[in-house]
Predict the structure.
Amino acid sequence: MALSVAVETASSEWDAFVAAHPDATAYHAWAWRDVFGPVFGHEPIYLTARDAGHIVGVLPVVAFRSRLFGQFFCSLPFVNYGGVLATTPDAAAPLVAEATRLARERGASHVELRHIGRQLPDAPVKQHKVTMLLTLQETAEAQWTALDNKVRNMIRKAEKSELTSESGGVELLEAFYEVFSVNMRDLGTPVYPKRFFAAVLAACGPAARLHVVRHQGKAVAGSMTIAHANRVEVPWASALREARTMNPNMLLYWHMLRDVIARGGRVFDFGRSTPGEGTFLFKKQWKAEPVPLHWEYALITREAPPDQSPGSGKFAMAIELWKKLPVPVANTIGPFIIGNIP
């Protein structure tokens, strides 16, 4: 079995393998190279394993150079999933070995692989996050009936507050980003640049959709969904705190569920959460079930997996200071910082 770097692999051949693999996610597609590389300046390195000339495994990794955390490899940064896709464990092992060799050669401290299920049983692992999955009903009417009375009442309250919802593409980017950037500032988190979301929309094509809730024409909540096979994930969603009493987030999620069902989606992925925290409890009320995530590591110069979360204790003071910044200032500075946090 021989490994080759993706520059020697046709994008069509890569995508054909990914499309046929049952464990693939939207982020394994070749087009995401145009998000990780041009937007943030990190180097995508896409590895393939071949047997008799045929691809039997792929591993997309990004060589990350961070002023906060140093050099490391990640599969994949900024998103919830990544890691190895292979037909057999024998095909996966040389991919991880080659990624580790390249990382060591470049002075990186580790390789992080964001797997859903455990793939490397002997590797160090972190299980600090879950994803929240909801198997959808066949119709919106059946989905409405399946909701708890409390959830239905909050959606009704949003509708009575004269909130409206819509879905679309890049034409909604300004409205989505207006809400997202304010919400990130309020959370004390540096914001992604608008060009990041524009690149995601371009990379995913019709698989990515934006959703916006408005009150009297003003955007008060927004999200992005990304579809892969029959599963639709919402990796980014926000609502303005000033509109909280109108429940715009409830209408936003109900709108997304209806949209996904109408388009034939069967599983709604509410995205990554920390068990017990607020976002986890919000998703749980929709009857989503937690699925443990496994972030597995090849450690090179480290003795234990890293803690690179901006929510860790060492960033507490910076978070509180960030919340006090004017939004235009946070939007100007934030993209320079967030590109250093995987």
The domain at 131-292 is CATH 3.40.630.30 (Aminopeptidase).
